[in-house]
Amino acid sequence: MNLKSQFLLIVVCLFSLVCLIDCHKKCDNCNKYSWEKVKQKGSLPPLAWDGSSAYDERNELFYVFGGLNGSYPNDEAINSFYVFNVKTSSWTNLMAPSSITPRAETMMFHDKRGNYVYLSGGRGPFRRGINIVYNSTQRYDVRKNVWTELNQTSFQQNLANRSVEAETVSKTGKSYAFSGSTSTLPAFIRVPGALKTDTIVFDSVNGWQQVDVVGASPTPRAHHHLHYNEELDSIFTYGGYTNCSTYTTNECNYLGDLWSLDLSTKVWKQHLFDVTKGPGNRDNAKFIYSDQNQLFLIGGSNYQYTNFMDVWRFDLITNEWTQLTILPLVDPETYIQTPIPSTIGSFYFKHIRKCSVEFYFSRGSLSEISGSPLVNDMYKLTIPI
């Protein structure tokens, strides 16, 4: 080996060593699945659940909007607007946007550079005997602290009229949504047309457009999460709430299927697996992280109104689910184990680091049934990757 080759080898080794040391400096639990309670500072958002959130990973800013301030029948929609700075663990009140009607479950997303935050659609409380839904789309200018309602055609307003999550693609800045509910009437799931059947996309130039998918789409559903897998350039979704029974709390109303939309071919694919060995039928489950080989899923609730905070890993090669064992949360002062609250409708985001992904969730309700308390804390789950 000549002198030049030896020098290059030494440089590579030193670089690898520095990266390894830096990784462990930035991740105290690199090889552990662990929980941590986050100490929040600043002006905390009001108690709420079923609100909306968007994470600007480039600037490490987490925006939250609205939601419901209680459980049925004492739940009303709010329009509070806050931002959480991950670097300082501090909340800032961006002031309630008076121009936006209070609402829950809006599509909330941001542009690629983090200059704008968008709100679209959403709903009021269920079971009021009237249909309280919205079809407007607003844009928040981060630099000017100003909201502006966007002009939309009647066709685009119809696309925006839904309660669902939207997912922003990091490569293009486009935001996608699938299905979602369009009614707050009692037993809304049985109202004709209450579930959308399409896939839609938003960009700052064209606004909302329909995606012309090839082949079959997943069963129409509500209360499902969308997640972008960058390595596969695909949108994933798991479970949700659908219409398969005359009863709104029948087990078959809750789905337990896994699908992905290839954004290059516009083809939906169902990932088949042994359903007896997976997370089961649930809505409101969230994806934590994914790459070309695996994805991680957390939480959700079932038809018996039971909430979960379990964590699952799906192997995209073998199509098998594995439930993970997570280190319990321990109070750093008393060293007493503290259970993680199993909430529903929490605000959440995921923060990718060099050797781990951190999944944050904040607030939420312990149940959607009357009298259930709301949670005010924030927690962080670390997953080594």
From TrEMBL:
Record SUPFAM superfamilies: Kelch motif (SSF117281)
Presence of the UniProt keyword Signal in the record: yes
Keyword annotations from UniProtKB, A to Z: Kelch repeat, Repeat, Signal
Keyword Cytoplasm: no
Signal peptide (from-to): 1-23
Transmembrane region(s): none
Domain of life from the UniProt record: Eukaryota
InterPro entries in alphabetical order: Kelch-typ_b-propeller
PANTHER family, alphabetized: ACYL-COA-BINDING DOMAIN-CONTAINING PROTEIN 5 (PTHR46093), FIBRONECTIN TYPE-III DOMAIN-CONTAINING PROTEIN (PTHR46093:SF18)
Protein name per the record: Kelch repeat-containing protein
